[in-house]
Design goal:
alpha/beta, Rossmann fold, six-stranded parallel beta sheet, single chain
């Protein structure tokens, strides 16, 4: 991509997640990029080696302000959230001295609640002028930023996804275990209580599939019973292996900003059971084609979804797997690079 300006990117990704590896092709295209992060709750083994770049680590996000002189030459800044005053000050700082372009990353989804209404007022009054663009995961994030008052022509999608060198199909869907898979925190917000009750009723009614759970949390001790295998948090490579040994991912959260695990499972060719409260549902789940999106979370609705997949025609399951993989390709590192380049082109050539 030809540019009339030398772009010097800096990207801050709070609590560097596995999907941060989507930056790999950006790093190859912009070797002068600086990556900054704070430690993740579940550290990724050999992260910097896999990423192909060193990460500058901050103990706390706002520590950036004390270290601003180290990064005073940056002119393209992408950073997580608008709640970190240190990053807001740093953005204003590089705007003043370099005419930098500043992009805010927001992963929340549109909820049309009172808090977001207040947020829209605050954004318009105090934040809108601080950012040249916004970077969101998908449709729900774009809807939220429009509601908040961001320029509708400067909202870019593709911030999250599935890193294709880890999440990919290694086993055809028909050769996998008859198994549902949950990956995440074992808490009520994730709908784990409903999932466990629905699965118990499913088994009591003669259901034959198993449920594998990868995660930890307050409800771990309740993740027991016939057909349930509960394991702790796993590294992404191990999660991918488990995805390739199961047929259907379950993520029935009461509230989920996006849910990268949905995209990761799709990249592995899984079918998906989600709720409308999972942001990624709008982007990854085509209801009745590669998954079931529950508009209302209930034990009965989820039990019916379990039985649907137990009885599904093999050809439909094969087709669903192909649909999932196809959709996930729109959220890989090439897609991330495309969004990154589009932002740079629009902001620096406008």
């Amino acid at each position: 991509m030809e540019m009339n300006h030398e772009i010097k990117p800096l990207l801050f990704w709070e609590g560097f997640p596995a999907c941060g590896l989507l930056l790999r092709k950006v790093i190859e295209s912009y070797p002068n990029i600086i990556i900054i992060s704070t430690p993740s709750e579940v550290p990724f083994a050999n992260l910097e080696e896999e990423l192909g770049a060193n990460i500058h680590w901050l103990d706390k996000p706002n520590d950036i302000w004390e270290q601003k002189e180290l990064f005073s030459d940056r002119n393209f800044v992408i950073h997580t959230g608008w709640n970190h005053k240190g990053w807001l000050k740093y953005g204003s700082y590089v705007k003043k001295i370099n005419n930098a372009k500043v992009v805010v990353v927001v992963d929340n989804r549109f909820k049309a609640n009172f808090r977001q209404l207040i947020g829209a007022i605050y954004f318009r009054l105090f934040l809108k002028k601080k950012f040249d663009a916004a970077f969101v995961p998908g449709r729900e994030g774009k809807k939220l930023l429009k509601f908040l008052g961001a320029n509708k022509n400067a909202i870019y999608t593709g911030n999250y996804g599935a890193y294709e060198n880890i999440y990919f199909e290694t086993k055809p869907i028909g050769d996998r275990n008859d198994e549902f898979l949950f990956v995440g925190q074992l808490i009520n917000r994730k709908g784990v209580d409903v999932m466990l009750n629905a699965f118990k009723q499913y088994k009591d009614a003669g259901g034959t599939w198993g449920l594998r759970i990868l995660g930890d949390g307050q409800l771990k001790d309740e993740c027991v019973g016939e057909g349930i295998i509960c394991e702790g948090f796993s590294q992404p490579t191990e999660v991918s292996k488990k995805m390739n040994n199961a047929k259907v991912l379950v993520l029935v959260s009461r509230d989920e900003h996006w849910g990268t695990v949905v995209c990761e499972a799709a990249a592995c060719g899984m079918s998906l059971i989600t709720t409308s409260n999972v942001g990624a549902s709008a982007d990854i789940v085509l209801d009745s084609l590669n998954g079931i999106e529950l508009s209302k979370l209930s034990v009965d609705n989820l039990k019916k979804a379990f039985f649907y997949y137990e009885k599904i025609d093999k050809k439909l399951l094969d087709n669903a797997s192909e649909v999932s993989k196809g959709i996930a390709k729109g959220y890989d590192s090439t897609a991330y690079l495309t969004s990154f380049n589009k932002m740079a082109l629009d902001l620096f050539e406008s």
